Amino acid sequence: MIAAIIAAAGSGERFGAPIPKALIHLGDKTLLQHAIANLAPLVDQIIVTAPAGFEKQIAELVGDEITVVTGGSTRSESVSLGLAAVVAETEFVLVHDAARALASTEMTSRVISSLKAGEVAVIPGLPEVNTLKVVDADGYVLESPERSSLRQVQTPQGFAYSVLKAAHANSRDVTDDAVLVANLGHNVLVIAGEDCALKITNPSDLAIAATFLGNASSFRTGVGVDAHAFGEGRELWLAGLLWPGEVGVDGHSDGDVAAHAICDALFAATSTGDLGSNFGTSRPEYAGATGTQLLQETLKIVTDAGYLISNVTVQIIGNRPRIGARRAEAIAALSHALGGVSVSILATTTDGMGLTGEGKGIAAIASALVFK
Ligand code: CTP
Ligand code: MG
């Protein structure tokens, strides 16, 4: 059996929020909920140390399967109190900080693997990038430790249960449990840490953590394609612009393949259907709608689904018209319809091959990147 103690009883004085730091939100969850979600797949029991007075609120937040105990006045004391709630048959205990909310399941599994391979104390750590000095009380340098041998250690730290229990039996106030275990003469192994396991101490750390979250979980992409055949007697609308003197295309709407492909890329990225299901023949109010009107409607659907658009690209495929001369104007028209997002427009011919190469029509392929 593996137990995890998540230290969450601090007040977060340096962070300066009116609520305990573990209850601060990062994206869609509190720091404590992130820490739990990352450890839960690997452990049999989770114990959370709560600040006095917040036990009930935290118990409701984390659910029945998690043990909540009241923490102490120091981190070491909180961990000792958590340790008292570990079930007897436990083999390994992880000690983690709620403040390192984004420490990954992958790194945690490496800690556990080393324990299973026979280590009694395993902690993640990153190489130190700064040159560090040991100073005396007056600020004079006593020592300059060799940087290459230094590590910034993180949590979760993993221990054999019996070893950690013995270490805490006569504990003093230390900032990590590995010190206590080392004091008993045990080997402590440092394995590779990770940037996303940073400790959230000040508000600026939360902003850094948010960048890890954004990259990890909430970006989505989509691709959209459209093609229309040329139709005599129609004017050409393409990329939000009227192209005087060019042959237009057939279609239910204005036939703007660039706008339509972008709409579909956005629907694809946000799982909100497609052009047909949103604006098709069953929705007569959209008959004859312009490409820019459909983009505006699409922006609304995507926004209502909770997404922001990062950027869109579209490549127009056809022999005519020549896009280059009006590229800036077309980008401005499409971007304006999408509320000002970044738009790129490319164009190509297909060397005389296929429907567009034979001059039968125009096609477009678009991509979109969105985030929640
Ligand atoms: N912690 C704890 N019990 C304490 C003090 C700290 O369980 N008496 C926990 C914190 O909740 C945090 C972790 O230990 O998840 C690391 O501590 P730190 O980052 O220093 O958090 P705080 O003590 O809350 O912050 P500060 O020192 O700024 O007050
Ligand atoms: Mg503290």
Automatic annotation (TrEMBL):
Pathway(s) this gene product operates in, as recorded in its UniProt entry: Isoprenoid biosynthesis; isopentenyl diphosphate biosynthesis via DXP pathway; isopentenyl diphosphate from 1-deoxy-D-xylulose 5-phosphate: step 4/6; Isoprenoid biosynthesis; isopentenyl diphosphate biosynthesis via DXP pathway; isopentenyl diphosphate from 1-deoxy-D-xylulose 5-phosphate: step 2/6
Does the keyword section mention Transferase?
yes
Alphabetical keyword list: Isoprene biosynthesis, Lyase, Metal-binding, Multifunctional enzyme, Nucleotidyltransferase, Transferase
The protein, known as: Unannotated protein
- Which reactions fall under this protein's catalytic activity? 4-CDP-2-C-methyl-D-erythritol 2-phosphate = 2-C-methyl-D-erythritol 2,4-cyclic diphosphate + CMP
Q: Which organism is it from?
A: freshwater metagenome
Pfam families tied to this protein: IspD (PF01128), YgbB (PF02542)
For this chain, the family text in UniProt reads: Belongs to the IspD/TarI cytidylyltransferase family. IspD subfamily.
Presence of the UniProt keyword Protein transport in the record: no
